[in-house]
Write a structure and sequence with these properties.
Layout: E1 5-10, E2 14-20, E3 28-29, E4 32-37, E5 40-44, E6 47-48, E7 51-52, E8 80-81, H1 83-91, E9 96-97, H2 100-104, H3 129-147, E10 157-162, H4 168-180, E11 187-190, H5 191-202, H6 207-210, E12 216-222, E13 227-237, E14 240-248, H7 256-278, H8 290-307, E15 315-320, E16 332-337, H9 338-349, E17 366-368, E18 371-373, H10 379-389, H11 391-398, E19 412-416, H12 423-437, E20 442-444, H13 452-464, E21 471-472, E22 478-487, E23 493-499, E24 508-510, E25 516-519, E26 523-526, E27 528-531, E28 544-547, E29 552-554, E30 558-561, E31 573-582, E32 588-594, E33 599-604, E34 612-614, H14 627-638, H15 647-651, H16 653-661, H17 669-681, H18 690-704, H19 713-721, H20 734-746, H21 753-768, H22 771-775, H23 786-794, H24 801-816, H25 827-843, H26 859-869, H27 878-887, H28 900-912, H29 917-924, H30 931-938, E35 946-948
Parallel strand pairs: 1-10, 10-11, 12-19, 14-21, 19-20
Antiparallel strand pairs: 1-2, 2-3, 2-6, 4-5, 7-8, 7-9, 12-13, 13-14, 15-16, 17-18, 22-23, 22-27, 23-28, 24-31, 25-31, 26-30, 27-29, 30-33, 31-32, 32-33, 34-35
Length: 950
């Protein structure tokens, strides 16, 4: 049976489906049935990419009934998808899932974890970005399958569009969402290409005439969540235009959502101003919650679209209803004017940029609703950066001389994305490019930016059948393997090319000149980067190049465990070569291939959202010359060969290693991991004596801290965690017990949620079990002191936020019960305060070191703790100020940040007690921690070369 040609644009704002019937040339839009009001279903061409999770009893079950029965792929009992979801979300804060597509490209969180709606109350069901995306696709599938029951969607020739700038992690997660929706077989197509395919197909009858004189087309796709640029070269071949995509841009979380948010900030300030005037300027400035700001942002989006229309009014009143019993009386209003749109949106996001300035790089981007938006909002500055990155290829396409140093500006422009429904924005970008070029450029008319990408996906499928104009493309960027232990000049990354940009799909590229000796039965991990930086001709596969660190995008690591073939030695070394392919689906595939033809596919590790990174390439630093002697020392103490070692020698092992390798504070991460591997291979030797066990636990924890940040750390943690349930051998030795808990505190950053919850069980038992329960303690449950448990519990950043609130409340009770009479604290009391306040500051911190942002303690609970801390004398109890600074630390994310009045109280107290300026700075603005604060909060310094990213 001949399939339909189907294309889905899974957009940040809307989802669209277009198709062509078997044998037909007409591209049609699929009318998507969806709830538009409670109990009312209607067909519309756009499905808003929104979910709404109603409160219990808010809607009757029948009011959410669709023409099909489909359980929610995310497992939520009651959910509205589409138009009704958007409408309900605009009226009720905190229950709307929006911008799931932007979350797919955010590596700072676990994108498969239930984190949306971001900042919602605990009683609101949450879903992962992947599951939310899958639910929109599942809606389309169900709707299609009742419309075309003999042609189920999963059996049609299906294209799913993605931003050209999506990295391999985001592409793989998009494919995962499609599989979850029951659509396992499809192709990915870049959205800017799809938009151009739509234009080409609509102009196919007179294409040569319509593109006459055109040599380089810029496709600027500014949607709800992303800005995407692509360059397409146009050449005449046998009198007909031939198109080749020659460049794509870096990923930018910058689009209509940012513009709506900027307008919401403006309206919020006006609402506060009006409230202040009504109260005689005596009322404190009220900062909206994350949920209420999201509600206001949705109202501003609707107002923006009206004010950008040709017949726009001078102003629109934006109303934000009150909450609960103050629904009407507590409403707030402010006007949004046409001149605001010109100033905020036109001049803020599309400045004329006469000087052709590039995008400004900041240490940290704007964080709102948990998303790291681009730090520079000016699309035209990002465009100047993009054109400079591809200057050489652009000059060649335009026929400009190589020595021309001016910015090469395309001679044709295709605009796409819902942002350009506003004619003023489209005209501004065309005007900017015309000024840069010195003359107007040709604007290729896009009659409907909302649906062009979906239609273009069908045109792409028709082109594959030879029935429509095609664009020659292939890999949008070059992919490189970072080489361990090698550095280029000027601190460049030394890398070998795996897949050059432009490589056609389904072309297998072998790295023939480099082989790797890999151990069967052990995991292998490679670090890849991609780049779009213009360096002339695309490199050859296997070429050794130096890459500037700022020009590359680090991809998620690729890894696997190489399993031996039947009959092969389980731990033998096998020489392999790397083979890379851009699959027909549009994703990168990497295999290890042995000489006998056996293949192992390497998978991207998508769940890992590490909070730190090595400042060097993996293994870039040379090992100390005495490393072998150091490992011999470890082997002498813990090795399998029985040796008579004096207990004093065991106790002095650390000092002996420092004598060989230098002070341990200077040991780099690669060196530490080599030492850990040596210790792990000899782990059984720790049971020879209490001295052996103490030394082993101390060195192992120190060498693997903080549990992540280096290749194979996940595997190392897995091997170490396998020891946990057996406990310690010398459980009656107090120092052994202390070293046991110190080890797990040090490596906690590498433990997953399940392992941290297991540690939490022992934490609770050691602190709360009564005498009768302690008598039944299993021998494998290691006893822990109060100090050990406080440090351990504070390090468990991946446990649910509700548990953190419970732990923090318990700590707060203990803190407030500490007697502090007298002008000065005695040493014992001061030490008790220090222990508990350090732990509370870590538990209540607004910014985790290794946990995901959605796992921090609730902001309202943190405010209660701050209220109690403010009752203490911070001059006498100095750690109180340090703890308060971390609990009140500014992140820019309203779902985590404390209320402004509380923040002002903390700032005043810090100032009055003469606290360090770094403490005040972290409360007042979004800053990175200085090394002293970082070390104090972590309990010890990170290894050299490892830096926190948060």
């Amino acid at each position: 049976m001949t399939p339909y040609l189907v294309s889905i644009d899974l957009g940040t704002t809307n989802t669209v489906l277009a198709y062509a019937a078997p044998g037909a040339q007409e591209v049609q839009l699929f009318t998507i049935e969806q709830l538009v009001a409670p109990g009312e279903v209607a067909g519309q061409p756009l499905l808003p990419s929104n979910r709404y999770h109603p409160a219990e009893g808010e809607l009757a079950p029948g009011e959410l009934q669709l023409p099909w029965l489909l359980p929610d792929v995310a497992g939520v009992a009651q959910v509205a998808v589409g138009r009704l979801a958007r409408n309900l979300g605009a009226a009720t804060p905190g229950r709307l899932v929006a911008s799931a597509k932007s979350w797919l490209s955010h590596p700072g969180v676990d994108r498969m974890a239930p984190i949306l709606p971001w900042g919602a109350e605990a009683d609101v069901p949450k879903v992962s970005p992947v599951a939310a995306s899958a639910s929109y696709l599942a809606h389309l599938r169900a709707n299609w399958n009742i419309r075309f029951p003999t042609h189920p969607l999963e059996r049609q020739e299906l294209v799913l569009t993605v931003p050209a700038s999506f990295d391999e992690g985001a592409r793989a997660l998009t494919l995962e969402a499609a599989k979850l929706a029951g659509l396992p077989q499809l192709r990915l197509l870049e959205e800017p290409q799809a938009a151009l395919y739509d234009w080409l197909y609509r102009h196919r009858a007179g294409l040569a005439q319509d593109l006459a004189g055109t040599r380089l087309v810029l496709v600027a796709d500014v949607g709800g969540g992303t800005t995407d640029f692509s360059l397409v070269k146009v050449e005449l071949v046998d009198g007909e235009p031939a198109l080749t995509r020659i460049g794509v841009g870096n990923h930018l979380i910058l689009g209509g959502d940012n513009m709506d948010l900027a307008l919401a900030h403006l309206v919020e300030a006006r609402m506060n101003g009006a409230a202040g005037e009504a109260a005689g300027n005596a009322a404190p400035r009220e900062r909206l919650s994350a949920a209420r700001l999201a509600q206001l942002t949705e109202r501003c989006r609707a107002a923006k679209e009206q004010l950008l229309a040709p017949d726009a009014p001078e102003a629109i009143t934006v109303t934000l209803l009150g909450a609960g019993s103050r629904l009407i009386g507590g409403s707030r209003k402010a006007d949004l004017r046409r001149e605001d749109i010109e100033r905020v949106v036109l001049d803020g996001f599309f400045p004329l940029n006469e000087a052709q300035e590039e995008a400004k790089r900041a240490r940290a981007g704007i964080v709102e609703f948990g998303l790291p938006y681009a730090s520079d909002p000016a699309v035209t500055r990002h465009l100047a950066s993009f054109l400079r990155q591809h200057a050489q290829a652009a000059r060649e396409a335009l026929g400009l001389p190589d020595d021309d140093t001016s910015l090469p500006v395309p001679d044709a422009l295709l605009l796409n994305g819902g942002v350009f429904r506003g004619a003023a924005l489209a005209e501004r970008l065309a005007a900017v490019l015309g000024r840069w070029r010195g003359q107007p450029l040709r604007v290729l008319h896009n009659d409907d930016p909302d649906v062009a990408v979906a239609r273009g996906g069908v045109a792409y499928s028709l082109a594959r059948q030879g029935q429509a104009p095609a664009i020659e493309s292939g890999a949008a960027r070059s992919y490189y393997l970072l080489l361990e232990g090698e550095r280029g000049t000027n601190a460049a990354l030394r890398a070998v090319c795996l897949l050059p940009r432009g490589t056609p799909a389904a072309t297998e590229v072998q790295l023939a000149d480099r082989s790797f000796a890999l151990r069967l039965g052990r995991p292998v991990r490679f670090h890849l980067v991609s780049t779009i930086a213009d360096a002339g001709q695309a490199p050859q596969p296997g070429a050794l190049v130096d890459l500037a660190p700022g020009d590359v995008v680090r991809l998620p690591p690729i890894a696997t465990v190489l399993r031996a073939a039947p009959g092969a030695a389980a731990r033998s070394d096998v020489p392999v070569r790397l083979v890379t392919t851009l699959s027909e689906v549009g994703s990168l595939e990497v295999h290890c291939v042995a000489d006998d033809g056996q293949r192992w596919q390497l998978a991207f590790e998508l769940r890992e959202a590490e909070g730190a990174e090595a400042s060097e390439a993996p293994e870039a630093e040379a090992m100390p010359p005495n490393l072998d002697a150091a490992i011999e020392k470890i082997d002498r103490i813990f090795g399998t060969r029985s040796k008579q070692v004096d207990p004093k020698e065991v106790r002095q092992l650390r000092a002996s290693l420092e004598h060989l390798l230098g002070r341990r504070e200077s040991w780099t991460t690669p060196l530490l991991r080599r030492l850990f591997d040596a210790l792990m291979e000899r782990a059984k030797g720790r049971r020879r004596s209490a001295e052996h066990e103490r030394a082993w636990l101390n060195l192992a924890g120190y060498s693997l801290r903080p549990g992540f940040g280096h290749p194979l750390d996940g595997w190392r943690i897995e091997q170490l965690w396998a020891m946990f349930e057996n406990g310690v051998q010398y459980h009656k030795d107090g120092q052994v017990r202390a070293e046991w808990w110190t080890l797990w505190r040090r490596v906690a950053g590498g433990l997953d949620t399940e392992a941290q919850l297991r540690l939490l069980d022992d934490f609770a038992f050691n602190l709360q079990a009564d005498a009768s329960e302690r008598g039944k303690r299993p021998i494998t449950l290691v006893d822990g002191s109060e100090d050990d448990m406080l440090r351990l519990g504070a390090s468990l950043e991946r446990i649910p936020s509700a548990y953190k609130a419970e732990i923090g409340n318990w700590m707060m009770e203990r803190i407030m019960a500490i007697p502090s009479a007298g002008a000065k604290l005695d040493a014992k009391t001061a030490a008790t305060y220090t222990r508990y306040l350090w732990a509370l500051g870590r538990v209540g911190a607004r910014q985790s070191f290794h946990g995901s942002a959605h796992e921090v303690a609730p902001a309202e609970v943190a405010e209660e703790w701050l209220g109690q801390l403010l009752l203490l004398d911070w001059k006498k109890v100095e750690p109180a100020g340090f703890a308060a600074a971390h609990i009140a630390r500014m992140t820019g994310d309203r779902s985590r940040d404390i209320a402004e009045p509380v923040r002002e109280q903390v700032l005043r107290r810090l100032a009055s007690t003469g606290a360090p300026s770094t403490w005040t700075a972290m409360v007042r603005e979004v800053v990175e921690l200085d090394q002293a604060s970082e070390t104090r909060m972590l309990g010890e310094a990170l290894p050299p070369g490892l830096k926190l990213l948060r």
